[in-house]
Amino acid sequence: MAELVFFSGTMDCGKSTLALQMHHNHAARGRDGVLFTRNDRAGAATISSRLGLVQHAAEVGDATDFWAEVIERRTQGQPVDYLIADEAQFYTATQVEQLARVVDELEVDVYTFGISTDFRARLFPGSARLVELADRVEVLQVKALCWCGARATHNARTVDGVMVVEGAQVVVGDVAAASGEVAYEVLCRRHHMRRMTAATARAASPSVATLSSAQGTLGVGA
Ligand SMILES: Nc1ncnc2c1ncn2[C@@H]1O[C@H](COP(=O)(O)OP(=O)(O)O)[C@@H](O)[C@H]1O
Ligand SMILES: Cc1cn([C@H]2C[C@H](O)[C@@H](COP(=O)(O)O)O2)c(=O)[nH]c1=O
């Protein structure tokens, strides 16, 4: 039976890498898939992994109708066994419902990948609908780490190096942006709620320059 799976985690935890690996493994066994993405950091119509993999994908826009996308391909004689849907947090709730219908009525496996919550720790509309509708929500095995060493579960946004909690929900960016830009940092919940980034922690306690010194000075979960 086909399934709708939501692979979720913080930024920089390996979602796009896994998306491309899954595509590779399914394609290697003769299955036909279609790749989708929306607002990838590397540019339109691209799925990019920080490990260096880059692959062309169909760019999702507000007008994209996943049901129509699959029907059209099949009508043209192109088999569609599965969809890979990256940056799924940016999809609309209606698009996620289309994906669920593609699974249930067309027997197409749909593997979606995305962050659940934004920089304010609020669900994105696409992620909320995926949590509600997916057959399974899978948390990635590789842990992204907070500066304190605990598992990172939340995404912080910084502007000019300072953590912010107001602004547009969607600002495409990276965890390694240059200073002066909008950037992101993954944190554990405790430090997200305290608005304590690596830079803030270093300023408060200059000896906390590294993860091991953080563990020694403050203790994990300080
Ligand atoms: N130079 C590197 N060497 C080894 N692994 C790396 C390197 N750079 C990034 N990674 C791995 O890639 C992961 C990010 O993968 P990516 O697919 O881009 O994440 P996501 O799509 O979740 O933002 C990191 O968590 C890390 O495990
Ligand atoms: C937290 C947060 C993130 N984004 C953007 C930043 C990146 O472009 C993507 C996440 O990409 P990744 O492959 O998971 O690293 O989402 C945003 O627009 N708003 C946010 O609050």
TrEMBL record:
<protein>
    <recommendedName>
        <fullName>Thymidine kinase</fullName>
        <ecNumber>2.7.1.21</ecNumber>
    </recommendedName>
</protein>
<keyword id="KW-0237">DNA synthesis</keyword>
<dbReference type="Pfam" id="PF00265">
    <property type="entry name" value="TK"/>
</dbReference>
<comment type="similarity">
    <text>Belongs to the thymidine kinase family.</text>
</comment>
<dbReference type="GO" id="GO:0004797">
    <property type="term" value="F:thymidine kinase activity"/>
</dbReference>
<dbReference type="InterPro" id="IPR001267">
    <property type="entry name" value="Thymidine_kinase"/>
</dbReference>
<keyword id="KW-0808">Transferase</keyword>
<dbReference type="InterPro" id="IPR027417">
    <property type="entry name" value="P-loop_NTPase"/>
</dbReference>
<keyword id="KW-0547">Nucleotide-binding</keyword>
<keyword id="KW-0067">ATP-binding</keyword>
<keyword id="KW-0418">Kinase</keyword>
